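Intended use. Records like the one below are meant for learning the mapping from a protein sequence to its folded structure. Do not use them to infer anything beyond what is encoded.
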Amino acid sequence: MNKLSIVISAFNEENKIEKCLKSASFADEIIVVNNSSTDNTEEIAKKYTKNIYKQENNPLAIDLQKNFGFSKVTGDWILSLDADEEVSPELKDEIRELLNEKSHKSLIVNHKSEMNGFWIPRKNFSFGKWIEHTGWYPDHQLRLFKKGKGKFLDKHVHEKIKIEGEVGYLKNHILHQNYQTIPQFVHRAIDLYCPSEAEYIIEKGYIFSPFDAIRFPLDEFLSRFFTREGYKDGFHGLMLSLLMAFYRFIVFALIWEKQGFKEVEDDNFLENTTKELKRVNKEVMFWTKEEKQKQIKNPVKKNLYKISRKIRLN
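Structure written out for the chain above:
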């Protein structure tokens, strides 16, 4: 039987980590990396494992720091979890079966090489609801991998683990208690994620445009609410789409700050801004009509709707 080590990274997670640890109790080894928590996180962890390691907290490299925990494992396979995540009972059974030596064939690819890692679907719960759309499902996470075959390479927040060799997909879920309050969302966005993303965009050679102050949040909203069908999550989908638009606006604002609050010289600034806002309106109306058309099931009605749209556009 292949041995499994679960690595949990935590910073001030006393309200969530116990559920995570309980769900991880099937593992051969639990390792907790305490990122200098000032609450009872470590005391709670001691009830479940002796393998607790402390390191300084670095919010701008929270994923990169997980490599420290990976270096401490003694098992054959590693499952990486955050303190606000849980292993579902179904996923626990699937991993057990996968790592059972009798099921070793499931790790073989084309009889030539072995799987070194697996993507796991994740259910995100935000503001008391499982978000099935809005870009948050199935939200595959590359979390299960063979020891020595995976690690984080980049300090950019939300980077994926890099795996040497073949990877596959599991069917069952990690459960993620994502956002529980609005202040929590705002804090994570402004203090953790947005600064990292702004730096990343600048490093990629971003060319400043003042109208990206409108385009960044608009594109994010359209992507979340329409393209990724956030409207199917109801009011939760609308609010999350708007919050993510706010997130992208903050990213742009931080880029502007990092570039010295660049002044924009444009004698027709009002006129050009108005044009951009009109484009915004056209984009919203276009996607609204596209989604309405998708929801029409009757083929005749759908064709009539297409014809009426063409007439109006002409």
